[in-house]
Amino acid sequence: MTEKEQLDILEEWLKLHKGLIFKVVRAYTEADHDDLFQEIIIQVWHSIPVFRQEASVTTWLYRIALNTAIKWTKREKKYAGAETLDNIQHLLEENRTQIDDRLTWLYGEIYRLDEIDRSVTLLLLEGFSYKEMSAMLGISESNVGVKINRIKKQLIAKSKNYDNHGI
Amino acid sequence: MEFDEMKKIWDAQNNQPLYVIDEKELHNRIQVKMNGLLHLTTISEWLLILINLGTGGILLGFNRLKPGTNIFLYLEASWMFVLAVYLVSHHIRRVKAGRRFDRSIHGDLNHAISLANYQMRLSQIIRWNFLPMGAIMIFSGWEAGKLLRVSAVILVSYTLAFYITSKGYRMNKRRKRELQVLKGKLEAGI
């Protein structure tokens, strides 16, 4: 595969699925959106030559984006505080004017989950099957089911506070 | 809230842009590029004007002081003075044109593109200006009986000038292309 072909594929994927990456970015980091976004794009770029079309592009991108985000979160935790804010320049910012407050709340709740539960929740909300989630995350289908039940209960319980108090 | 409701809220975001470009930061970056180009353009303009005026003046003085008049040296000095005036008029027109751009993202971006264009034109003017100047100098050397020496100096100077101006031209062309790509993306809303 030539670099030009690789670039064309990346541009095409970004055009069609950029939103998917933004969702993962927002669920995994509160401040360094631009940095994580770039990291995911780099990993997607490296993955293009090994993409065999056995999975759909969406599934493939989710797998890469989630793995990158999980590794990123671990690394960020390890080096928390090492980088000054002066070095971070964001060109992308949340489109707050158009976002439903309930969506902001939902992202906040997802962010509070641990790394694997965050991935499970994102994939569940995106409508992936247990089988697909299991393949993407490397955990058994029954484990996915157990996690989903627990996460659903947790989110519904927390949403009651939101419904009652708007928080 | 039931989970189905959360799913609906989640799905609704697909119809809206999740992120927008941080216009302030983008504007800052464009302004940095534009100011850099503006600074470079102003310096190169004044440098060229001063070099032409200075060299023209030296040639004129040298020709007046030394015994015997070399008409080609007068011609060379005049050419340099005319070029200096031409560059000053170019500079005035550029400054006036620059005032027409507003200070919005698009205004600054268009200003930066026009500056890159101007720099490219300036490189071309300087490059091709060496041809008539070189020719006059060769004639002047021929009249003074130093044809070979003068021709060699002209050849070396022209090669050097050609190399430097080509490099400047290519650099500004690349800058202009980058800015045009950015403009295209902004207009396409990407």
Question: Can you describe what's shown?
Answer:
Chain A has two domains: 1-94, RNA polymerase sigma factor, region 2, helix turn helix motif (Rna Polymerase Sigma Factor, Chain: A); 98-167, Winged helix-like DNA-binding domain superfamily/Winged helix DNA-binding domain (Arc Repressor Mutant, subunit A). Chain A contains seven helices and one strand, in the order αααβαααα. The longest helix of chain A is centred in the N-terminal third of the chain and has 26 residues, at 3-28. Chain A is 71% helix and 2% strand. By secondary structure, chain B is mainly alpha-helical. Chain A binds chain B through residues 19, 22-23, 26, 33, 89-95, 98-100, 102-103, 106, 125-126, 152, 155-156, 159-160, 162-163, and chain B through 1-3, 6-7, 9-10, 12-14, 16-22, 25-26, 29.
